Amino acid sequence: MSLSGAATATPSGPAAIYFNPSLLVLEENSSAEVNYTLWIADVSNQFAAINFIRNNSALAAGFFYSGSGGFEARDTPGPSSGPFSVNYLSISAAAAHRMGPFSAGVTVQYLREEVFQYRANGFGITAGISASFMNERVRAAAALTNLGEMESLDLEATPLPTGFNAGITADFLELATSGLNDLPLLFRLHLNWHQPVGENLNRHSSSGFQPDPVFSSAISTDIGDLFVLMAGYRFGSSERPFSTGISLKLDPVRVNYGMVPFTTGFGTVHSFGLQYLF
Q1: Under a CB-based contact definition with an 8 Å cutoff, are residues 216 and 230 in contact?
Q2: Lesser CB count within 10 Å: N end or C end of the chain?
Q3: CA 60, CA 110: separation in Å to the nearest integer?
C-alpha cells in the first residue's frame, strides 16, 4: 500500500500471494505476516499469511477479510428493520518456482461474500511471472489478478476486479555516508501499469464509463538495512493518489506502517503490519 500499487515487481513478503505470487520464491527467508488496515468509512481489513521457501520453490497460504457493519436495512420508508453488515473473505493457497533469473507463481482463492441476508461463494486465480537482470538490481514482472467468478448475490453476481499488471523495480542509486560509522543508502524505483480486463472492464463500459489504465510510481530508500522509507504516487483520476510508509527491520521482525490520505475528505487509511522471518 505504501507504494501506491507499484509492487508488481517488488518482493513484499507473503502479501505477494495476492498481487504476484512469482515473487514469493524471491524472498531470502520464509516468513509469516499479519496486517490490520483501518480503511475509510469504518471499513476494516485483516490479513494473515505464511510463506515457506525451500531451494527454488515456495508454498504459501493466507486469508484476507474485509468488513463493515452498522448499516440499517429498510424495505419501505420509515423505521429501520434492523442492522446488517457487509463482509468479504478470501482464503488462498499459492505456489512459486524459480528457474535461473526467471520465476513463476500461481494463487488459487476461495471467495465468500455476505451482504444483508444474502450469501455468495466464488473462486479467483492470480498468476504472475518475473525476471531479474543486472545481478538482480533490475526486475521486471507481470501478473494477471483475480481471474474467476462469483455466484449470484440475490439477483446478480458481483464481478471480480480482474486486471493485468506490469511493473519494473530498479536499484538506481547507492550511497554511503563517510565517517566512523558508514550508513549505506539504497534508492529503489518502482513502476507499475494496471489495466482492468474481462468483466471488470465490461462492467464499466456498459455504464458508459471507460476506465483508463493506471500508472503508479514510487521510490523507496533503504537506510543502513535498518529501515525503509517509501512514497508513491498514482497518476490519473484517483481519490487516493499519494501514499507513504515505513518499514523497520528489527531482525527477525519487520514492523510496517502505511498511510493513504483521500483527497475527497473521506479521511486517511492507516495500515499496520508485522512480519516474522524464519
Answers
A1: no
A2: C
A3: 14
pTM of the predicted protein model: 0.88
202 phi and psi, to 5 degrees?
-65, -35
Q: How far is residue 25's CA from residue 23's CA, in Å, rounded to a whole number?
A: 6
Q: Which domains does the chain have, with CATH numbers?
A: 16-70+85-277 (2.40.160.40)
DSSP state string for the chain = -TTTT--TTS-BTBTHHHH-GGGGGG-SS-EEEEEEEE-GGG-EEEEEEEEEEETTEEEEEEEEEEEEEEEEE-SSSSS--EEEEEEEEEEEEEEEEEETTEEEEEEEEEEEEEETTEEEEEEEEEEEEEEEETTTTEEEEEEEEEEEEE-EETTEEPPP--EEEEEEEEEEEEEE--SSS--EEEEEEEEEEEEE-HHHHHHHHHTT--PPPEEEEEEEEEETTTEEEEEEEE-SS-S--EEEEEEEEETTEEEEEEEEE-TTSS-EEEEEEEEEE-
Per residue in 144-196, pLDDT (tens digit) is 999 999 999 888 899 999 999 999 999 999 998 766 567 899 999 999 999 99
Cβ distance 85 to 71 under 8 Å? yes
